[in-house]
Specification:
By secondary structure, the protein is of the alpha/beta class. Helices cover 31% and strands 24% of the residues. It starts with 5 loop residues before the first strand and ends in a 6-residue tail after the last strand.
């Protein structure tokens, strides 16, 4: 097959049921615009940026006050300000989507073949309430940093929600990171509290990490309290000695003094810092990228609801660690009313079937992974459709690197015929995507389906001139207008010097992302890798 081949076409029924169809109908009724297809909606979303993002706010049901102004300094990039009068709380928007006493699954966790847990929405809210109270008792206030050296398990999400309900800033690393890698990141942001697991499982082996935690904390003088999550202990590896870590207590001891109570969400400005994520550090110390609560929330809900077609009651899985931005992206699925499926460990135990077994058992509607995983699964002969019906699965997401045309073939030959295979691309820099899937568009072999709504994405040549779609000419992926999930700033970056140099030095006033791409005649994108050869 060539790249110019349609692998999947949504049925008329699926198009009619899609969230994006309902959204376009609502926008057309309000604006009087004719929006017959995705191309028209994309153009409108960029021509009328303020109206578009207000419509997303309303459609997503954002909890908080929006204020009168939508965008100020609209021509400045960087420097534009979205919703400058708004007041919101990120955790409130994730936790109040369902009733506080909802006994249905909010989270389902599987740690390899060692541990499976179901956490109801009521238990999630209760856990976040107790963590918030414990952090408040510790003296944590809005703007303080709370860091985590954790596995992708329920306590990571519960701790993040508790911290962000207070307006604290969350930052996480995965427990496979070495001591220096953690210090290179957390050492810059000076956290007051550190959550850490006692260890983790990988490929059937228990890997205790409290010695590493002790070493890290000994060199992080700002850390006042360490909260140890008993992951290995919960899988029968015996009690871990937390006393070796300065200022450490176990999870239960930390929350025990605090009864469940209604959470007092602190509503803060739209750009109030929510997350600190990190560049790879390939050529120097990792850059600490600060993302705002409002931009992250609004962008993620746009992507989940409109591009991913995530509906209330869906069951959303993404294979990720707590270091990768896809963890942050996954967690926002709570705001779309989804149940989150969490997996920690090797994806290739049980001859590579473990993730698909999890998806089948938990009725996953959306399955997310990396292009690297799909490529390796193809090489070792994992054929999910042989062993699993995957009756509920509608969408597969892939990101992390370009999805090869042969990997598109694998999705339809080995996973499922009726599937929206959404190769998506963006990055830590924007904690979201420039190129996405769309449930109402066909999937062309080797192509990302579309440019994201509200994202003025273009392709530039070396002279900074747009390259027309369908010319088969590659160029730089750029975004020529501000969008809400641009970083608030880099940490410890006076005058935004590093921020400006990273994204705006090549083409002043235009975001250059560092990806080498082609805009196709179908208005899709083909990614060819990094134009700058590094991820720093």
């Amino acid at each position: 097959m060539t790249t110019d081949t349609i692998l999947w076409q949504p049925s008329p029924e699926r198009i009619a049921r899609a969230n994006i169809t309902a959204f376009a109908r609502r926008v057309a009724a309000i604006s009087g615009e004719s929006l017959p297809d995705y191309a028209a909606l994309w153009r409108w979303s960029n021509d009328e940026r303020e109206a578009f993002w207000r419509a997303v706010w309303d459609y997503a049901g954002i909890v908080g006050t929006r204020g009168e102004r939508t965008l100020v300094d609209a021509t400045r990039m960087p420097g534009a300000k979205w919703f400058p009068d708004a007041r919101i709380n990120f955790a409130e928007n994730l936790l109040t989507r369902r009733a506080a006493d909802d006994a249905g699954d909010a989270l389902v966790f599987r740690g390899e073949d060692k541990l499976t847990r179901h956490v109801s929405h009521a238990e999630l809210v209760a856990g976040a309430s107790r963590v918030a109270a414990a952090l408040k008792a510790q003296g944590v206030v809005a703007g303080d940093r709370v860091a985590a050296y954790v596995a992708n398990m329920p306590e990571a999400i519960i701790a993040m929600l508790g911290a962000t309900s207070l307006g604290a800033v969350w930052s996480s690393c995965s427990p496979d990171f070495g001591v220096q890698g953690v210090l290179d990141r957390f050492g810059q942001i000076e956290p007051r509290v550190l959550f850490a697991v006692d260890g983790y499982w990988y490929n059937g082996k228990p890997l205790p990490i409290l010695d590493k935690v002790a070493d890290i904390v000994a060199r992080l003088p700002t850390v006042e309290r360490v909260v140890v999550i008993p992951y290995l202990e919960a899988t029968g590896q015996g009690p871990q000695d937390v006393a070796r870590v300065r200022g450490a207590v176990g999870w239960e001891a930390f929350v025990a003094p605090h009864a469940v109570a209604p959470i007092e969400y602190v509503r803060l400005p739209f750009d109030h810092p929510l997350y600190i994520l990190y560049s790879s550090g390939t050529t120097g110390a990792p850059k600490c990228i600060v993302h705002g609560a409002g931009g992250t929330l609004l962008q993620h809900l746009k992507e989940h609801l409109l591009h991913g077609d995530v509906k209330a009651g869906d069951r959303l899985f993404y294979f990720t660690t707590c270091l990768w931005m896809m963890w942050n992206w996954l967690v926002s699925g709570l705001g779309a009313g989804a149940t989150l499926l969490l997996y920690d460990g090797s994806p290739f135990i049980d001859r590579g079937k473990v993730l698909w077994d999890f998806a089948e058992a938990e009725r996953a509607t959306h399955f997310g992974t990396s292009a690297k995983y799909i490529d390796h699964a193809k090489k070792i002969g994992v054929v999910p459709r042989k062993d699993f019906a995957l009756a509920h699965l509608r969408t597969v997401f892939s990101t992390g690197s370009p999805l090869a045309p042969e990997s598109f073939d694998y999705g339809y030959q080995c996973v499922k015929d009726d599937l929206c295979l959404s190769s998506i691309a963006g990055g830590t820099d924007i904690v979201s995507c420039f190129a996405l899937g769309c449930p109402t568009l066909p999937v062309w072999r080797g192509e990302l389906q579309c440019r994201g709504l509200g994202m003025q994405v273009d392709v530039y040549d070396d002279e900074g001139k747009p390259i027309a779609a369908g010319t088969q000419v590659k160029g730089e992926l750029v975004c020529t207008a501000p969008f809400p999930s641009m970083p608030v700033r880099f940490w410890n970056d006076p005058g935004d010097a590093k921020y400006r140099a990273t994204y705006f030095e090549r083409f002043p006033g235009v975001w250059r992302h560092g990806d080498y791409v082609e805009l196709t005649e179908h208005d899709g994108l083909i990614f060819y890798g990094r134009s700058d050869a590094t991820l720093n």
